[in-house]
Structure formats: C-alpha cells, structure tokens
Give the backbone structure.
Amino acid sequence: MDRWRGISKVPLFPGSRSHYKVATSLCISSSSQKPIVPSMNAIFFNGDRVRGTGNPVIEKLSDLEMIAEIIVSKLGENCNVWVIEASEFNGPFAVYKDFIPSVNQWGEPQSYDPTGYPASTSTVSLLSTCLKEVKNTLSSRHDEPCCSEALGSCFSQPKTLLFGFSKGGTVVNQLVTELAFSEVNSNIVSSQHEPNIIPTSKESLFNSITEIHYVDVGLNSTGAYITDQDVIERISKRISERALGIRFVLHGTPRQWRDSMRVWIGKEEDTMVDLLEVESRKSGGKLSLCERFYFGDMLANMQMHFEVIENMDVS
C-alpha cells in the first residue's frame, strides 16, 4: 500500500464561491495507484492562523500537511486524513460560516442549531470534491479512469474520527449537535460495486462516527464546548439505537483550561465532562469519555497549544 499526499483548494459545492484548503493523506494501491477503502477517515478542522511568531515549533505545527502526517503516524497507515482550513479569515480569525451559519465576524458561534444540517452536509460535500480531485490527478498520471479499490475484501463503511483543534472545535460542536438531532438509519449499506472511501451522505457520516476529539479548543467568547444537557442526552439515546459506540476525548493544556483571562473555557469543559460522565454511566459502554491534560507542570504559552497536536494520545 502507498499513500497520496497533497493540498487541494476546492469549492464547497460546484459553483460555490467558498473555497477550502484541504491537506489530504490517502491510502492508495501500490500496484494500480488507485484509492483504497481505508479502515477509517480522520477529519481534522484547524483553527485560527498564527503567523510571524518566529517560533519554528509553531510554524511547523501550523502546516496542514505536517498535521496530516502526524495524524497518520498516530492512527496507522490504513487511515485517510483530511485536514480542513476555514475558507474565510478575518485577520487571523478562522470563520467557518458554511459549517456554522450563526457565527459573528470573528468566527465565534452565537448558537449551535441543527436546522439544515450545515456542518454535516458541508463535510460530506467537501470530502467528495477533494476525493474527486485526487482521482483526477491519479488518472492523469496513468491515462486511465481512476476507480476505487477495496482494502482486502472489506466493503464496509470506514469509521469516522472527528478532530477539532482550537477554533476548529466549533465545527465539531455543530456536528455533535446535528448528530444529536439526526435519525438513526440502519438501512444504509455500502455498495458492493463501488466501496465507499468516504461517507457519501450526512446519514452515513453520522452512523460512522466513532471518536470525537477536542484538541485544546477555546474561544474569546463562550461556546468552546457543548454545555447543553439536551444535546448530550440525545447523543446518548442515539448511540443506544445503533451498533457503534462513540468515544469523546478532550485534550487540553494550561493555555486553554487554566487561562485566567478566559475562565469560561475551563468551566465549559468541566460542564461537558460532567454531562458526558452521567450519560456514560447510563449507556452500558456505548458512550465513553477520556480527559487528557498535557504540560500540566508548565506555565501556559502559545507553543504548548500547538505542541498538543504532536503530543496528544489517541489510544
């Protein structure tokens, strides 16, 4: 098995004015150089831009392709990784307005509302467009149509892992809210003729999610974590009605969780942990929670905020 690595700048939908920069690292066949159905898709939503720091660690870990390779090194060669950057920035501030319609000019959420399912619809469309571009690139190298191949005899839908880093956590919150209000559809099956490399609908996306990672998320406003009891309860109920469970992993550093100027971040994280723990006890193992704190003996700084990407434990 080989890998295809690269950066695409693609429209969200055909004809859309919103273009997204996406770093991809995909499984491809060594012999045919065609995309292979992976065991999982890791979708990583990046945060605000931090430029001109002169810090080589921050510069390295701000690189989308570097992030993709770090995630591959943690999850294994059988995974596909998609690192998504916001299409719009207000100065350094990422604005994911296609995924969360109710954001202000700095990309801060005013609410998380499942109406219209914008985050899940946008995620599926963006992955589909990126995959199509990769296939076209591979086809042009080999002068033949580029289809998909299964990894071994596996025709099942790959699992989906969500990662929200810093501001990217807002997209994960919107996806969690949409998942909570979505309906279980147990009739979705993979085609035996064209295995699904990626989720092809919001329903298949929801049904494939098995892990949700919050990676040192934080905002200059409230909304970094889900604190709505109804959403967490609905998530628990939805999981109970499907085969796959979901693990929430909250990764944090003093930069966010101990920020004395933004004390609400730590309070929101505590609230979400409390809500998840209650539902975890009621779920019979279907919903689980891990809370992981890094650099706890150090004073908060910007470098640790990026270093958590490299240091996070996803086991």
